[in-house]
Write a structure and sequence with these properties.
By secondary structure, the protein is mostly helical. It has helices at about 1-30, 35-50, 60-85, 105-115, 130-160, 170-195, 225-230, 255-275, 280-305, 330-345, 360-370, 380-400, 415-440, 440-445, 455-470, 485-515, 530-555, 555-564, and strands spanning about 205-210, 215-220, 405, 410. The protein has a two-stranded antiparallel sheet with strand order 1-2. The chain has a two-stranded antiparallel ribbon with strand order 3-4. A hairpin with a 5-residue loop joins strand 1 and strand 2 (about 215-220). The two termini are about 35 Å apart.
Length: about 575
C-alpha cells in the first residue's frame, strides 16, 4: 500500500503539471485566463493604489532591488508585530504564552517567515497570539510565496527573451501571483481542511480531563487560515509546535496527502511553464523527469531505512519498522513521503520527528537540503535551482567536446560561467563554515541537549542546511532558541533567499540581453534522455564533492556504528 500511495502521488503531480504549467505561463505573460473577469478590476485597483505602471518593466538589477526591499519591508513589519504582540487583542490568555518573544527571537522569526524558511525556534501555541499568527505569519506566507513565484517568472523570461534589457515588473508579478495563483487555491484548500476538521476559531484554550484523571490544555485558534497556505506557498511553519504531527493541523491521511500535493504541484508545473515560454516543451519535461528520478531514489532509500527493523531491536523478537517519533494515524508510509517531499521543497512541514529516523533515513532529507531545491523546490526557486544545475552540466559537457556551451539557445560565456559557479558553491560556502563554527564553540555545542557524537553533528549540519535551503525543518535534539543560533541561522536564511536569487536574476538579465543562437549539428540537445542523465549525474557529482566529507562525519558514521 505504501508504494501504491507513492505512485499515485507522483501520478497526480505529473498529471497536474501540464495544465497547471500552461495556466502559470498565461499568468506570467499576462494572457487571458478564466479568472480575469473577477480579478482584473482588483488588479487594476491595486496598481492605482500602489502607483504601479504595469507596462513599465525593470532590468534584472532593479527587479532584484524591488524583491530585496519588499522582503526587508515585510521583515520589519513582522518584527514589529511580533515584538508588540502582547498589546494585540484576542487570545490566547497571557498565562499560556510561556515563551518570551525576545528581540533576537523576533528578528529570527521575521527573517524566517519573510524568506519562506519558517524556521521556528519556538512553539506557536505557547508563544504567539492569534492575531500575530494571522496578521503576521499568514500574511507573510502569502506575500513571501508570491514574491518567490515572481522571481521564478522573471528568471524564465530572462531565458526566453532576446536582446531585451528588461525581465518584467516585480510588482506586477507579485500581484498576479497573489491574485491568480495563491489566493484562489488557498481559499479552496482551506475550506477542504475545515471540512476535514481543522479548526478556524478565536476561542480560548480548553482544559479537559483525561482518561487517566489528569487535565490537559487543548490549544485553539484560526489554524485553517495558516495550514494550507504554509504548504502552497512553500513556507511550512506550523500553527503548533508539533506542526503537521498535530491532529488539529493535520487530522487525517487525506489532509496529509493534500498538503504534500500543495507543496509539490506548483513547483513541478513551473518546469512546464519554462518549456512552454521558451518554445522547448520537451526541455521542461526533461528537467522535471530529473527531479522525479532524484525524488524516487530518495524515497527508496528513506523507505527502506524506516521500514527495516531497527538494529536496537535485534534479539528482542520485535518485528516491524521504525515507528519511533511517528504518528500512528500516518504510519511509516505517510511519514516517509512527507519527509522526502518537505525536504525537497522550501517547506519544513514535517508530520514526524526526523530526529527519530534511522541514520540513513535522516541522510535522505539532509542530502536534499544540501543539494539546494533541485527537486521540485520552492515557488520560483525550484525552477532556477534545477536550471542552474543543468547549466553546470552543460558547461561540463562543453568542456568534453571543446565547444562554447549553450543552453536553450543562450551562450554560456566566461561571465555567465562565473555566476553559475558561484551559485553552485554558495551553499557549501555558507553551510559548512557555519557548521564548523557551531561545532567548535561552546555556544554552538550547548544547543545539543539530547545527542552528541555523529547524531549531534548531524543535528547542527541539518539546521544550517535547512536554513540555507529556506526550508525550516530541524532535528528536535537541537535547542536553537539562543542568541547564537538565532543570529547564525538568520545569516543562512538571508543568503539562501537573496544571495541565490541575486545570482539567478543576474544570469537571467544576461541571457535576456543575448540573441538566441541557431541550433546546429554541434548543439548539445537539452530535450533528450541523455541530457537528463547528464544533469542527474552533475547534481550527484557536485553534491558529493561538496558534502560527502560532512555526511561521512554524521549520518554515514552513525549508520556504520550501528552495524558494528
Amino acid at each position: 500500500m505504501r508504494w501504491l500511495e507513492y505512485a499515485v502521488f507522483l501520478a497526480i503531480v505529473l498529471g497536474s503539471a501540464q495544465p497547471l504549467g500552461l495556466y502559470l505561463a498565461r499568468v506570467c505573460q499576462r494572457e487571458r485566463t478564466v479568472l480575469d473577469a473577477v480579478l482584473g478590476p482588483i488588479e487594476a485597483m491595486l496598481y492605482r493604489l500602489l502607483g504601479v505602471n504595469p507596462d513599465q518593466e525593470m532590468s534584472a538589477g532593479v527587479y532584484f532591488m524591488c524583491f530585496l526591499l519588499f522582503g526587508l519591508g515585510c521583515a520589519i513589519v513582522l518584527f514589529l508585530v511580533l515584538t508588540f504582540q502582547r498589546w494585540l487583542p484576542g487570545g490566547p490568555a497571557d498565562a499560556y504564552l510561556t515563551t518570551p518573544m525576545t528581540v533576537d527571537l523576533a528578528a529570527n522569526t521575521a527573517v524566517s517567515f519573510t524568506t519562506t524558511t519558517t524556521w521556528q525556534a519556538y512553539g506557536g501555541e505557547n508563544t504567539l497570539r492569534y492575531l500575530a499568527q494571522v496578521v503576521g505569519l499568514v500574511a507573510q506566507n502569502f506575500l513571501a510565496g508570491a514574491a518567490g513565484l515572481a522571481v521564478g517568472f522573471a528568471f524564465i523570461r530572462g531565458i526566453a527573451r532576446e536582446r531585451s534589457a528588461t525581465i518584467g515588473n516585480f510588482w506586477v508579478d507579485l500581484i498576479r501571483s497573489l491574485l491568480w495563483v495563491l489566493l484562489p487555491l488557498a481559499l479552496v484548500g482551506s475550506l477542504v481542511l475545515i471540512w476535514q476538521g481543522v479548526p478556524l476559531n478565536m476561542t480560548p484554550y480548553v482544559s479537559v480531563h483525561t482518561l487517566e484523571g489528569g487535565t490537559q490544555t487543548i490549544a485553539q485558534g484560526p489554524v485553517a487560515a495558516l495550514e494550507f497556505i504554509k504548504n502552497l506557498g512553500t513556507n511550512g511553519g506550523g500553527f503548533f509546535n508539533a506542526n503537521g504531527a498535530h491532529p488539529y493541523a493535520n487530522p487525517t491521511p487525506f489532509t496529509n496527502f493534500l498538503g504534500m500535493l500543495a507543496i509539490t504541484v506548483l513547483p513541478a508545473s513551473l518546469l512546464i511553464t519554462l518549456g512552454h515560454i521558451v518554445h522547448r516543451p520537451r526541455a521542461g519535461w526533461v528537467l522535471l523527469m530529473v527531479m522525479v528520478a532524484l525524488f524516487i531514489a530518495g524515497l527508496v532509500v528513506c523507505d527502506r531505512a524506516e521500514t527495516a527493523s531497527p538494529p536496537q531491536f535485534a534479539g528482542l523478537h520485535v518485528v516491524g519498522g521504525n515507528m519511533e517519533g511517528k504518528e500512528v494515524r500516518f504510519g511509516i508510509g505517510d511519514s516517509v513521503l512527507t519527509a522526502v517531499v518537505t525536504s525537497n521543497a522550501s517547506t519544513g512541514s514535517y508530520n514526524s520527528m526526523h530526529d527519530s529516523f534511522q541514520p540513513l533515513g535522516v541522510l535522505v532529507p539532509l542530502i536534499f537540503l544540501l543539494l539546494g531545491e533541485v527537486v521540485f523546490g520552492g515557488l520560483g526557486t525550484g525552477v532556477y535551482s534545477i536550471v542552474m544545475a543543468a547549466l553546470v552540466g552543460v558547461f561540463l559537457g562543453g568542456l568534453m567536446v571543446g565547444r562554447t556551451p549553450e543552453y536553450l539557445g543562450k551562450r554560456i560565456g566566461s561571465a555567465e560561467t562565473r555566476w553559475i559557479a558561484l551559485y553552485a558553491l554558495m551553499t557549501p560556502m555558507v553551510v559548512l563554515p557555519l557548521t564548523s563554527v557551531a561545532v567548535a564553540v561552546n555556544a554552538g555545542r550547548a544547543g545539543l541537549v539530547t545527542n552528541s557524537g555523529p547524531r549531534g553533528f548531524t543535528e547542527i549540519l541539518f539546521a544550517y542546511a535547512s536554513c540555507m535551503a529556506n526550508n525550516g525543518q530541524t532535528l528536535a535534539g537541537l535547542s536553537a532558541d539562543t542568541v547564537f543560533y538565532n543570529g547564525t541561522t538568520a545569516i543562512a536564511m538571508l543568503v539562501g533567499r537573496y544571495g541565490l536569487a541575486a545570482l539567478a536574476l543576474a544570469l537571467a538579465g544576461r541571457f535576456a540581453a543575448q540573441r538566441r543562437l541557431a541550433t546546429t549539428a554541434g548543439t548539445l540537445p537539452s530535450d533528450t534522455p541523455a541530457f537528463g542523465a547528464l544533469v542527474f549525474g552533475t547534481i550527484l557529482l557536485v553534491g558529493a564533492l561538496c558534502f560527502f566529507a560532512s555526511l561521512a562525519l554524521g549520518p554515514i558514521a552513525e549508520s556504520l556504528g550501528q552495524s558494528l
